[in-house]
Amino acid sequence: MLAFVTTTLVYAAVGNIIDKDSLMLICSVIVSILMCLSIIFLYRKLQTKEQIFALNKKISMKSFFRILIVFMAVCTITSKFIFIIEDILSLFGSGFGKSLDRATGEWTRTSIMSIVYVGIIGPILEEIIFRGYILNSLKPYGKKFAIILSSILFGMYHLNIVQLLPTIVMGIVCAYVAIEYSIKISIVLHIVNNLILAMGIPALADLFPGNGPIIVYGILLIIICIMAIRIIISNKKNVKEYLIKEKTKKGLYRQVIISPLFIVFAIICVIFTFT
């Protein structure tokens, strides 16, 4: 949200004299500064560093590898699912238009600074805010509720209909990891998504023209998905028990939806998403 609002304001002021890529880079730096200031404020007012970065439970390399495989599979599948919908809509003369362009824009891999921001700084700041402050603030109402609501807010925050589903799904995995293990691990997962899945693979495809990279990527994706399915099936009992154990108080989601704060946030998100 900060990125889009900042871009809009800066573009209105200097859009005629600065090219798009430079504009997005400038806005990224401004946003990172604003987010840093927000984190400093929240750190002083709400929670301590120990609460946010607490190690709730140690994770083995085997468990981390399994989570990483599932994470990469669900993030990639949900992202590709959007392109399938886009192809279907194009048959009827419609589509996501600029939302898809913003979600897949090449500006994110045009300079070292933008790569550092989108691939590293952005994920760290977003994890601290959403899987740190927001998730911990919602935790007293139940882990499942905290995971789902913080992930929905995370998806809405991106102000892009194309990114809504992928970011919500990604948020659920990161929130689960943060609440059960540590936010440090969710930061690693977020960086993997942005730096490798969203930026690295497309950049490699650009460097090596032809169908070769696409075929290799497709084969790797199939292998990862098969591994992820096996991991999910072998742990379905644990997942079911977790969902049953972490029950949400009846009517809690309704209270959130009709709350003035959520309504205002939702309206702002909708306005900036479709403008």
TrEMBL record:
**Which residues are in coiled coils?**
none
Is this entry keyworded Metal-binding?
A: no
Which molecular-function annotation in GO is an example for this chain?
endopeptidase activity
* Pfam families in UniProt: Rce1-like
- Domain (CAAX prenyl protease 2/Lysostaphin resistance protein A-like): give its ranges: 111-196
Q: TM spans, by residue?
A: 22-43, 64-92, 164-181, 188-208, 214-233, 253-274
Recorded hits in InterPro entries, A to Z, give:
CAAX_protease (IPR052710), Rce1/LyrA-like_dom (IPR003675)
Query: Which processes are annotated in GO (biological process)?
Result: CAAX-box protein maturation
Keywords for this entry?
Answer: Membrane, Transmembrane, Transmembrane helix
Key word Transmembrane present: yes
PANTHER family on file? CAAX AMINO TERMINAL PROTEASE FAMILY PROTEIN (PTHR36435:SF1), SLR1288 PROTEIN (PTHR36435)
Q: What is this protein called?
A: CAAX prenyl protease 2/Lysostaphin resistance protein A-like domain-containing protein
Source taxonomy lineage? Bacteria, Bacillati, Bacillota, Clostridia, Eubacteriales
